[in-house]
Design a protein that fits this description.
This protein is α/β, with parallel strands linked by helices. The protein is built from seven helices and eight strands; from the N terminus they run H-H-H-E-E-H-H-E-H-E-E-E-E-H-E. The chain has helices at about 15-25, 35-40, 45-55, 75-90, 95-115, 125-135, 190-195, and strands at about 60-65, 70-75, 120, 140-145, 160-165, 165-170, 180-185, 205. It has a six-stranded mixed sheet, with helices on both faces. It has a two-stranded antiparallel ribbon with strand order 1-2. The longest helix has 18 residues, at about 95-115.
């Protein structure tokens, strides 16, 4: 999403406001509470309350800058939460299927262009199901689905079973040989990316843009004032 203001959709107002604030802070550390409130269409007091909650949860850090102004920065935890909320928003949006299909197609085409014809998915979700449809129309073989052990899926897509017709494993090494991994997790896409990038070449990880995954490490933010 390009701006702090997000479109209305089938998502609860609490999530919408939080995501809007995180988007606004990511775009500009000099954003003000008043401008955030105006962009989101909420009262200034409500924006202040949500901002304080984001600070308390460790999503945003505050630094005082003269004269009597504040700068806001997303923490690494804030970037991760923004990624999760963005995926949650998109999964409940009517635009999800269209975006997901186009982005999965682009990533799979990128794989074939590099000669990577054996691909694994990472994360049981609607995105994984869409990816299987896209792969069926391409010269790509999906070897299975990786179910990251640290992600709570409430019993869905557990290792040893099958999901979307694919065998499920909790370790990439347990699947057949594969050339690349397409991340399809919607619960914690940033965490899944970081987990996989620590055990396999980063260039072989495909991350659809809609997941909001940051492939670079956030720069340290200035310490908040007293």
């Amino acid at each position: 999403m390009a701006s702090g203001k997000i479109q209305s959709g089938p998502i609860d107002g609490d999530t919408e406001i939080t995501l809007g604030l995180l988007n606004a802070v990511q775009e500009s550390s000099a954003v003000t509470q008043r401008s955030m409130a105006n962009d989101l269409g909420i009262a200034l007091g409500l924006a202040n309350a949500y901002l304080k909650r984001c600070v308390r949860k460790g999503y945003i850090k505050v630094s005082q800058i003269p004269p009597n102004r504040y700068a806001y920065y997303l923490t690494p935890h804030g970037f991760s939460e923004k990624s999760r909320l963005t995926a949650e928003y998109l999964s409940s949006s009517f635009t999800f299927f269209r975006r997901a299909r186009a982005q999965c197609e682009a990533d799979l085409d990128r794989c074939t262009a590099r000669g990577w014809t054996r691909v694994a998915l990472a994360g049981a979700s609607e995105l994984a199901e869409i990816a299987t449809l896209c792969a069926a129309e391409r010269a790509v073989t999906l070897v299975g689905l990786i179910d990251p052990p640290h992600v709570d899926r409430r019993g869905e897509g557990r290792a040893g079973g099958r999901y979307a017709g694919l065998p499920v494993a909790d370790d990439p090494a347990s699947l057949e040989d594969h050339d690349a991994v397409l991340i399809t997790d919607l619960r914690d896409p940033q965490g899944v990316y970081e987990w996989l990038s620590a055990i396999m070449p980063d260039e072989r990880l495909m991350t659809p843009p809609l997941l909001g995954v940051r492939r670079d490490h956030p720069k340290p933010e200035p310490e908040a004032g007293p």
